[in-house]
Write the structure tokens for this entry.
Amino acid sequence: LGMLGEQKAVPVLQAALDDSTLDVAWNAAIALAQLGNDSGRGRILQMLDREFLDSLTEMTEEQKKWIDGATHEELLHRWRFSPAGDSIFIGVCGEYFSKRLRAKRHVDPVEHSRLSHLMGWG
């Protein structure tokens, strides 16, 4: 909505700031900023606060199972292409994800380099 540049989208975007889905709230705040409206500023600052993010989530059994079963390529793809606020990168789960990704990177640095190029890096 914000990308359309329509001021009439402001009330809808402001309502979305309180959405329980972090990605929706984040995108609404960014869209408001793009429209020159600073009503989403507090939400952006809140979502950038590490303590706030860490308080949102622990790691579910489903997340742990996915991380443990993911290939190096799947982990890199998720890291590169996930939307802002993906809970797999937050708190305990985010720490675990990072640890597993680092472990896979160090097993085969040549493969990591190849995959990084596939993801659009370097």
The radius of gyration is 17 Å. The chain has eight helices and no strands. Residues 2-48 form one domain. The helical segments are 10-16, 22-34, 41-48, 50-56, 61-69, 72-81, 91-107, 109-118.
